[in-house]
Amino acid sequence: MSKIARVEFKAKNRSIPQGFILPDLGRTTVITGPNNSGKTNFINGVNEFNKYAQIFDANGAELTDIQPIYIPAEVIITDEQLFKIGKTSDLIKTLKGYVTGDPKYTLQNDTDENSKSEVTDLFDAVNSKLKGLLENDNDPDVVEVGIKQELSLKELLDQAFEVKPGNNSAGVEHKKFSDLGQGWQRLIIVSFILANAEKKAENDKLKLILIEEPEIYLHPKLKRALNAMLQALAQKDDYQVIMTTHDPYFAMSNRSDDNCLYSFSINAAGDTDPGLEGIISGIEDELLHIFLFNKVLEKATSEGVDVDNMMQGGALNSWLLSKNPTAKNYIVDHGNEQQEIQNPVSLALSLCLRHMINHPGNKHTMQGRNPYTPQELENSIAIMNGILV
């Protein structure tokens, strides 16, 4: 089955101008960038591609037989809404739309035991996925989904989701799907999609998962689990994933030859600019710096650079300065504080910040004598992006 290789907008959608092109897409395409850079506008336009966009494969042929599966990032405003999203939630619409969409389950006949068995089997597969998210099956964080057998099948998707703790020793009351936090809602949705993809051969449509900010409302261990499920879907011939994120983990963990990564920004005309493929910006933080520096070390090693000596006279410092001459003074502990302050060493900016970020427990940190600014962090990340692309 042909995969999506290029997206071109035929009509303007807010900050996404007519003629906007995302030139290369991978099995998974990750889009980062600051708030209001157009990520959601892009996702919405692709979700309604018949209205806004043309989609092409690697040979330039237009693809029209695509089933977008949109998993939005929702904003909860009031405390009362925090755990009660309601049946109008787009997340719930996504789940209903997927399970009753294409392919369809034959739910019209309430006495159809084959249909009931098919749905029950799917729920069993979903529960297996959910239990696999955590190392311990008895972890109280895990939940199960089930069917209330006293309801007719036609009521299934409106009322029959029941969710209970996997280890229900406390006798916690069952909840409706709509009463779950959004993190678990999204995990259940992706579990349904993956379970169904593994369970049966589907139609000839390419299923395009459009997921916004998969990191929201998730503990790190569940964040890793969700990412693993999305990666498994992206490896299937009839699935592809586009995600937006502010989380360096999702950007770096999906950085590979099969995937693509873009960082959106707003240009002087007020339109979204996709940037160059492979550049990560708009989410600059210390975690991203650590990720990128490790990639830089891998590249330096592949070019025969001795990376063991990370100080002024080392080959790594010289190699980094040859890539970009930006340097920063670094005060080294010699046992004589006055001499140390008067005679700092000059290190490549990324190497200098690496020492401060990776060793927060010594005095050569941002809290000590070697502070760095947010602008220096952003500059260092930009330098490493340039080295890696």
CATH topology of the largest domain: Rossmann fold
Q: How do the strands of the widest beta sheet line up side by side?
A: 5-8-9-3-10
Q: What Rg, in angstroms, do the CA atoms define?
A: 25 Å
- Termini separation: 30 Å
The second-level CATH architecture of the largest domain is 3-Layer(aba) Sandwich
SSE order in H/E notation? EEEHHEEHHEHEHEHEHEEEHHEHEHH
For this entry, what is the oligomeric state of its chains? single chain
Unreliable sequence segments: 75-89, 99-111, 149-158
Number of strands: 14
CATH class of the largest domain: Alpha Beta
| Secondary structure: helix percent | 25-40%
Task: Report the portion of residues in β strands.
Answer: 15-25%
Largest sheet: 5 strands, parallel
Which term fits the overall shape? globular
Q: Give the number of domains.
A: 3
Walk me through the structure:
The chain is α/β, with parallel strands linked by helices. It folds into 3 domains: 1-65 and 204-283, 3-Layer(aba) Sandwich (Rossmann fold); 84-202, no CATH class; 286-388, no CATH class. It has 13 helices and 14 strands. Strands 5-8-9-3-10 form a 5-stranded parallel sheet, sandwiched between helices. Strands 2-1-4 form a 3-stranded antiparallel sheet. It has a two-stranded antiparallel sheet with strand order 6-7. α7 (220-234) links the parallel β8 and β9. The two termini are 30 Å apart. The model is unreliable at 75-89, 99-111 and 149-158 (pLDDT under 50).
